[in-house]
Design a protein that fits this description.
This protein is of the alpha/beta class. It folds into 2 domains: 164 residues, 3-Layer(aba) Sandwich (D-Maltodextrin-Binding Protein, domain 2); 118 residues, D-Maltodextrin-Binding Protein, domain 2 (3-Layer(aba) Sandwich). It is built from 12 helices and 11 strands. Helix 3 links the parallel strand 1 and strand 2. The N terminus is likely disordered.
Length: 318
């Protein structure tokens, strides 16, 4: 509903017609809420490079990690709504309103443009861990309950933190989260065994699994990933409700002219339909998954309802 109001309002923005027709006349800044090198950064750059070629101006990725993505979201929400500042969103956009207070932005302060990709989340453990499957990890975690094991979390309201808590709740495990600023800082501690496990986007860990530095015990996808077909799903291992897929989309400040949003959405649609782009996304452990502005808005409403229920469950555990 709020998305529809935003888009309707953007049509009425005075004096926006000429600017929208001329856009883009200079580089566009695309803010990413996670550190450079993370899944969001790697997957997004595939699309940004093609947007630059298609629209004739640089689309510059700018990383603004921290505060569980709220720094990036606030920055873009306060930006001028002229199409020159965009935000890469993922499930945190639907989650944060239910798990954090004191935010200085709201979902309604950002207008959805398009969803462009999906990626799996994997539960991974150090290669030196004394177990080979999820059941082994569960048994080991129960035997180490005092003090409990620790796991690496990319942020309080991150998709991966919520996915980890979904699994831990269903398994009845007490494993303490250690907070990091995104996924990349977790990797060294995970490889060295300083944390017992992490749930991370497949783009961050597939190469490490293939090189033998990490073990992948489960995917949170509905089916096994084609890039890691030997790793079973959570559902296959007795946790059918632990299905969590990460998505990537674009948002603009509320009030951005509808014509700019439409042109962006149409450009993304064309880009992710190309076989070469789909191959590049696959190489980054993602898959093209386009939704236009209207469908993306509806998808976000479904996401918000799901995460509202999960957040309420986690609050009940306190």
């Amino acid at each position: 509903m709020f998305a529809g109001l935003i888009l309707a309002a953007s049509y009425a923005l005075p004096g926006s017609g000429h600017a929208a027709q001329a856009w883009p006349e200079r580089p566009v800044t695309v803010v990413i809420a996670y550190p450079a090198g993370g899944a969001a950064d790697v997957v997004t750059r595939v699309v940004l490079n093609e947007l630059a070629r298609t629209l004739g101006q640089p689309f510059i990725a700018e990383s603004k990690p921290g505060a569980n993505s709220n720094i990036a979201a606030e920055w873009v929400a306060r930006a001028k709504p002229d199409g020159y500042t965009l935000l890469v969103t993922s499930p945190w956009f639907a989650i944060n309103q239910y798990v954090e207070t004191g935010r200085r932005w709201e979902p309604a302060s950002l207008a959805p443009v398009a969803r462009f990709a999906l990626t799996d989340n994997l539960l991974v453990v150090p290669a030196t861990a004394p177990y080979q499957n999820l059941a082994g990890y569960v048994a080991f975690a129960r035997s180490q309950s005092n003090p409990p094991l620790q796991y690496g979390s990319p942020g309080t309201g991150s998709t991966q933190r919520m996915a980890a808590e979904l699994f831990l709740g269903q398994a009845g495990l007490n494993v303490e989260p250690i907070q990091y600023k995104g996924a990349p800082p977790i990797i060294p501690d995970l490889v060295s065994g300083r944390v017992s496990m992490a749930v991370l986007a497949s783009a961050n860990v597939t190469a490490l699994i293939q090189s033998g530095k990490l073990k992948g015990l489960a995917t949170f996808g509905e089916k096994r990933s084609p890039n890691t077909p030997a790793i079973p799903t959570m559902a296959e291992q007795g946790y059918p409700k632990a299905i969590v897929t990460s998505w990537f989309g674009l948002h603009a400040p509320a009030g951005t002219p509808a014509e700019i949003i439409r042109r962006l959405s149409d450009s993304v649609r064309e880009i992710v339909s190309r076989p070469d782009v789909q191959a590049s996304l696959s190489a980054a452990d993602a898959q093209a998954a386009f939704l236009d502005t209207q469908d993306f808005s509806q998808y976000l409403q479904t996401e918000q309802a799901m995460w509202r229920d999960v957040a309420a469950h986690l609050e009940g555990k306190k």
